[in-house]
## 1
Amino acid sequence: MPLRDLTASEQVRALAAGDTTSLELVDAHLAAVEADDVRAFLAVDAEGARARARAIDALPTRPPLGGVPIGIKDALSTRDVVTTAGSRMLEGFRPVYTATCVRRLEEAGAIVVGKTNMDEFAMGSSTENSAYANTLNPWDHGRVPGGSSGGSAAAVAERQVPWSLGSDTGGSIRQPAALCGIVGVKPTYGAVSRYGLIAFASSLDQVGPFSRTVTDAALLLRHMVGRDPMDSTSLDWPGAIALPTATDLTGLRVGVVEELMGEGVEPGVRGAIEASLREMEALGATVVPVSLPSTPSGLATYYVLAPAECSANLARFDGIRYGPSVAAETLLDQYEQTRGALFGPEVKRRIMLGTFALASGYYDEYYGRAQRVRTLIVREFTEAFRSVDVLASPTSPTVAFPLGDRTADPYAMYLADVCTIPVSLAGLPAISIPCGLSGGLPVGLQLAGPAFSENRLLDAAHAVEQALAFDTRPPGLVT
Amino acid sequence: MSGFEPVIGVEIHVQLSTRTKMFCGCALSFGDPPNTHTCPVCLAHPGVLPVVNAEAVRRALLIGLALGCEIAPRSIFHRKNYFYPDLPKAYQVSQFDIPICGRGEFTAIRDDGTDLVVGITRAHLEEDAAKLTHAGGRRAGAEGSVVDFNRGGTPLVEIVTEPDLRSASDAGTFLRQLRQTLLFLGVSDCSMEEGSMRADANVSIRPVGSHALGTKTELKNMNSFRFLERGIDAEIARQTQIVASGGRVRQETVHYEPETGEITPLRSKEESHAYRYFPEPDLVPVVPDPAWVDDLRHGLPELPVPMRRRMVGEMGLSAEDAEVLTGSPELAAYFMAVAGEADPKAAANWVRGELRAQLREVGEEPWESRVTPSRMAALVGLLAEGTVSVPAAKEVLAEVIATGGEPAAVVEARGLGQISDEDALRDVIADLMDANPDQAGQLRDGKEKVIGFFVGQAMKQTGGRADPKAVQRLVRAQIGGD
């Protein structure tokens, strides 16, 4: 079997068995990265990756992740490796430190081969807001991979890496996972350290894995979670992330979020989700409708809070201390011209939205009200989880849309995250797994649970995955 | 009289002298080469996060407790957004509507002994900005500016008072005693020159009898209390003149130039104060354990203002003694230790006077000298029991300063003990009268002016060791003798 067709877990096992070496794996994947025709990567660290692979191959005992390659979203700081967050503002920027979650994975034996494309500063749902390239959907090169972690999703779907890291603020892991036919996990807020994740909206951002199987996602997540003294909002993981084993769902109570199954959901998507729900019932689950009446306000709430936070988070980019700069006569001109020239239109739009939402006189009406709605949404989820164990919905109301289709209409783009945003606002964990095709394109099923219910979610997703036996290989992919 | 009264409130920024910065592990430093104490966090590199310095929280709580503030069971940080080269994140992490220390009250003592009660609005934690140096002086016309990020992220406590002050001298009294209090708490160096304590004053005037507040101006960042007092007086005069001539005071930040005595408006950091505060999502609320807060409360040292009261009320010291002896926490601790073993008034005289005078000669402070509080107390005790005379005690003190001996041992070794034995003194006087028959005759005849002669001679004869009072009495007893 070609090395790239092995899942990450299989690669770890092959390494442990001595059937392959880390260098072989890295070379095989680097060859795919270099032959990339979906433009998943922004930067490749071939020499560094090979050097680390050789070093791991020379160890007397392999670390838990063996020396398996990984792709990292360009929003994560990697020491000495160019980290741009998809923005001209950080073109050529080489960080002086590595994000905690990346460092933990490296210590566990993952080998970073490169940095993946993304919407600028993680703002977008198609990766078309990248300042550098459009990433293509491996299932249809005329379509978007989703976003903002589109590069990480496409790289895994294209088998350039067996797994990767993304970040999810309002759906930026789950939605591209859905559109690319792979698994994506947004952990509980606080489960994974944000130290080194270039902030978009700090109260929502979480790092999480992409992989082709639920088991791989669990394996990667296991080595990421836990409190980090550098991130005050990170939390001790209660227990450990277990590798999922469930093959039936006996006793599992599944709530179907009515508000996320209605208008705006494509019939093909709804069909695939309904088929998955029937499959879950067949596996022993009880499936009941659940109402989360405030979720339709989620999008509006999110587009007040996230821009408000981003307007402060992105204020540090002034072209003075790092990154490129536009020379000007006065300091103020330099700030303005640098920010004017080097931020893209969507970033500017959100900074302006957020600045407005926080302006005195508008604060209560926008930021204050959004915080109250957020509290309401949190309560509704808490309430729902009194009667069900997991909530099911589509991850995205549509399958992958054509490149350029929504770039002129920000609101249409924002709607891509309508199903994922409420979960983010509540800080809850969720997983997206591929559950079928609509018009030849993958559909994602989102399962969400209470805080720190990752093990249960992974188990449920694993059982569904086994039953559905979705083939993650995009048509025509040669490995 | 003008018919106006000034209304003054002050805001004090205190840099906490913690080992590390407010939100990162960089060491605090003053005077080190620029930009040598920086890291990705305090330079606001992409992706970094703040972590609260627990020691800074502890010190903020100590300040709040010392000022009688309500301690918030849960306080939160906010982001205060503004663009300025000294603020790398373009927001300052500060506290806004829920500060760690809420309302309190501080009572200072005026020079005339009356109480000066000042309401504390709040005290909150925040981080300091980096240090900007403008080549070519103040901003207007500056040729260029450089930034030193060593200072950026230093923990600060901002203390805000109610507008309770009614004169520049009251403002000075309050600030000096607040500073002393902070020094006693050991939370800050409180150096105005080095900028570890900075005070701004909000000044307005209103017609006497009015309770409404007039438009205030903010007098910025004076580097000494004396200049701040002068600045306040100048600003009061300026406002009074404006209002008296029918004008209106503009709300603005002003600067006082000590050399010319002039007040000039200062350009503010941002024209309108639209800081767009919002809760800092990178930090969790500060929720101090109530038991810990109680421990801190009970562990507070005796603070200078109550200590001064106790010195005057219980120990019988003069107000001036009390003020001088609480001048620094070290001196106060030293004195209190001496006063614990000796008569406080005598101890106060000696510590304030001879001890400090002699130590000044050798460039030492009492608490670091060889004159331990016990030795000082022992010396005061020897004096009180009449074992040594004052001149001898001064000599003993010099010896203790130089060699660190015990006073009693020094007295013994150098034979400095006072001669109070009346028989011995009578013999000395008899010898003197024999040697000076003329004066002896005058004395017997009741000529009092020769008493001084014999006393002086007796002191000389005994090397200053004779008890002068006893000698006086014994010489006088010779009047009318035969």
## 2
Amino acid sequence: MFDTLKSRIYQGNQAIPDIEKAVIDEKFRGLPLISTHNCSNCSNCISVCPTNAINHGLSIDLGKCIFCGDCERECPTNTIKFTDFYKISSTSRENLIVYSNTTQEAYKATAIKSSEQIKKIFGRSLKLRQVSAGGCNGCEMELNACSNVNFDMGRFGIDIVASPRHADGIIITGPITENMATALEDAYLSTPDPKVIILVGACAISGGIFKNSDAIKRDFLEKYKIDLYIPGCPIHPLTFINGLLSFLK
Amino acid sequence: MKWIISKNNQVISLNEIPILNINGLRNEIIKQYRTQKRVIGFFGCVEYSNIRLYVILADDKKSELLISSARFAAGEKSYPSITKDIPAFHLFEREFYEEFGIEPFGHPWLKPVRHSKNKFDKTQKIENYPFFKMEGEEVHEVAVGPIHAGIIEPGHFRFMCNGEKVYHLEIQLGYQHRGVEFLFENSNRFMPHLAESITGDTVIGHTVAYSNAMEALINLKISDKSELIRVIALELERVAVHIGDLGAISNDIAYIMGSSVFGATRTLIINTLLSICGSRFGRGLIRVGGVTCDIDNKLAEIISTTLDKVLKDVERMTDTMFSSASVISRLEKTGTLSKEKAQGIGLVGISSRASGLSLDTRIDHPWGWYKNMFFDKEIIESGDVFARTSIRYKEIKQSIIIIKEILSQLQNHDNDVLLIETKNSLPVNGMVISIVEGWRGEIVHVALTNNENGIFRYKIKDASFNNWYGLALSVRNNGISDFPLCNKSFNLSYCGNDL
């Protein structure tokens, strides 16, 4: 008993005090910025990208990007630079595309636009059901980390619940395998209205590294409206929590 | 000659591999099993419109791999099952049957493995799995999944119970099947990114296995410093997951103190990986040809200090936890898997060592820098949840010692190139077997190349493939409420099985 209390005192308070201003290691690959001044049009970045996230004229689609950093390393002119800016969630698919004139401020200003209705209904409490549909366990582990003592997402009224019937929406991870497609739709239909859909990670948003597999089946995403996109491979807890907070506030 | 003998990461020519008839091969396998060999590969592929079955046995004492094969004629649709004599083949034979439709006659449990996209019987649906049925007035079934209560991958568990007591658990997997092997086979470039996503909790393990295989095929020797950094990364991954598991086990017995403290301590380790390579799971670090990021003296110092703190915190928390009678009473004699059963079904990795088996491929089939290292296998005999918990604690301590030792060696290799670029192409008709001991256990990657310098078959076996059945056996005669605890003590991968 005393040992337990001593451990508790020794550990102190582990929670990140201000989650919106949390500092992340500078090595972290968050929002990529493109400066085409010196670009020699060698196309190294395009050919090295494993998910075809980079387009000619230079734009990077964060919905496809797995943040491997290969393009940055292969670029002879430092045209692509990953920054440690982690607030990269967005409510629109188009907004996830970063162009050569995109700045951190510009990205931030347009990334999240949510409705008054969502703020009113879910602003103070949001319960979500997570469905892994082919997720490799990377995004799943980071979603679990959101509720650990460091990130402590519960303090903002956001929780992951066991039953879709108790949920205000679903979080999807993974590229949606054919074998999981029915169960995913069942879970969504079991969630009472009004409800949101949140796509977490490159696999869910675009199929990611698995998009050319014929074992995946993504027509669920065409049927229903997606409310929030959280890019990453896997997502970082700070990206997820801050994305939700901006979505709800 | 009935077998060709190879080693971990040694390239052999496909033409050298003996081709027997299936009955001959079956007898040979049974003969080899009498001298402690163990199956690590059993898979088919289509060659010249015939189906050829490759078998790889490991000789753990001699660090050797025995390879042989059998070719099936067009009309040959069955053979006498090996599982009847050697239970460890049960899942391998099911997998071969699912993909090629050649029936292991007399197999006691011939059911789907993962509802693979290239299954021979396309009419089979994942919804129609033939579950085992038990009958009796007091017997009832509990069905769980594919979607579980927490943030966890999908799989279906069917418990056959009498009251609280589990008679039998049947585990149906396949929901995570993404066609990983075909993606490797259809690619004309190196795919380390795909290897990183085979199972996201074993990024380093699988990517090292993949890179070792490719480097062997293109005959590339990476620098010593890259090898050292790969060891550091692999052991950091082991430490991180093991600490996370101690937290998860604490959580499942409502020991919230442990859950919180181990969770916070794990964060220190994965943030160390972040400061090395920009990803908390080591993504982007391992590439064919070496590693992408350096560990300089300053970073080595920081890592070393972090590890000291982690070791202190883990020791402190584990001591407190293990001295609590209410903790021990939940862990001891729960989910016991005997050594005989573990050996019989071919358990591998940390769970096998907790049941008293002496299996650790870092020592049995060393690769890279592990060839220069000396340490002992951590083995516990009791096979219960407590054994699987304590072995994690032991391995955390052992891995931290290993990492600190390797960190001190880094500066001797300051001038090494981290990532070697090469234009070497894959060999014609070659085969390589790459084994890595991930935190969960043995990872086996096998690559076969065709006569156009491309990979025509890429076979992956995660430790989970061997171990899921071990979980099913361990919960027999336990209370159903102890299932989550047993499950966490194995911590198996769904996508590592489903691929």
